[in-house]
Amino acid sequence: MRLRFSLARLVASTSLVAVVAMGLGGCTGMSKLSDVTGSIGGPRAEAAPTDPVRAIEVYGERYRANPKDADAALAYGQALRANGQRAQAAAVLEQATIADPGNKALLAQYGRALADNGNFQQAYDVLSKAHSPDNPDWRLLSVQGTTLDQMGRHEEARSYYASALKIAPGDPGVLSNLGLSYMLSRDLPKAEEALRQAYASPRAGVRVRQNLGLVVGLQGRFAEAETIVKADLPPDQAAANVAYLKEMLSRSDAPRGAPKRTPVASLGRPD
Question: Is pTM beyond 0.70 here?
Answer without folding.
Answer: yes
